[in-house]
Amino acid sequence: MNAIEAEDVVFVIGPPCSGKLTFIRENLLGYEVIDLHEIQKRSCTVWDSYLICEKELVEALQRHRKVILRHTLMKAKRRTMYINAVRSVRPDARISCFYSLPDLETYARYDESDAASWNAAHPDNPDPPHAKTALAIYLEEFEVPTIEEGFTSAQHIQRLFPPKEQTP
């Protein structure tokens, strides 16, 4: 994606199984990806995973890497921690945010195709929630990212790249 190649840091956020990784693979090449879900799989507590993610973000920026931070990050207050970490290393860094809010039909397709991902991320609850319920919960809690938070831009993925039609 030529429009964002110059960005230093890109947040890609949205509900689990909503196409974040697909968006990254298809549109954002040449970035170091820091995936908070992957960090959570190897850490002791959720808070530890946030701190590890922050540390990895800072280290990547110190190595002059372009970085993607991938996670749900539903709330502005959680995103602030990472924006502040970026600014502590590179005050003039350009930080984009792409957020995924798929429609129910698209989300259900992702949800059905990625039950293994849910199971890995939630070993204490191996039954993934029904897509409609999961998306409703997420949307109820989600705060749309804004430029006021410190992003250079905040864009809705599905508006930029409408879902491809499924062939029967």
Residue-averaged pLDDT:
81
Please state how the strands of the largest beta sheet are arranged side by side: 2-3-1-4-5
Percent range for β-strand residues: 5-15%
What structural class do helix, strand and pairing data support? alpha/beta
CATH class: Alpha Beta
Q: Are there runs of 5+ residues with pLDDT below 50, and where?
A: none
Task: Give the count of helical stretches.
Answer: 8
CATH 4th-level superfamily = P-loop containing nucleotide triphosphate hydrolases
CATH architecture: 3-Layer(aba) Sandwich
CATH topology: Rossmann fold
Question: Cα-atom Rg, whole angstroms?
Answer: 16 Å
Most strands sheet: 5 strands, parallel
Shape annotation: globular
Q: Work out the number of β strands.
A: 5
Order of helices and strands: EHEHHEHEHHHEH
**Terminal-residue CA separation:** 29 Å
* The number of domains: 1
Helix percent band: 40-55%
Structure description:
The chain has helices at 20-27, 36-42, 46-62, 76-89, 104-113, 115-121, 131-141, 157-160; strands at residues 9-13, 32-35, 67-71, 95-99, 153-156. It has a single domain, classed as Rossmann fold (3-Layer(aba) Sandwich), CATH 3.40.50. Helix 2 crosses helix 3 (46-62) and helix 3 (46-62) packs parallel to helix 4. The chain starts with 8 loop residues before the first strand and ends in an 8-residue tail after the last helix. The radius of gyration is 16 Å and the shape is globular. With 168 residues, the chain is an alpha/beta fold. The model has no long low-confidence stretch (mean pLDDT 81). The chain has a five-stranded parallel β-sheet, sandwiched between helices. The protein has eight helices and five strands.
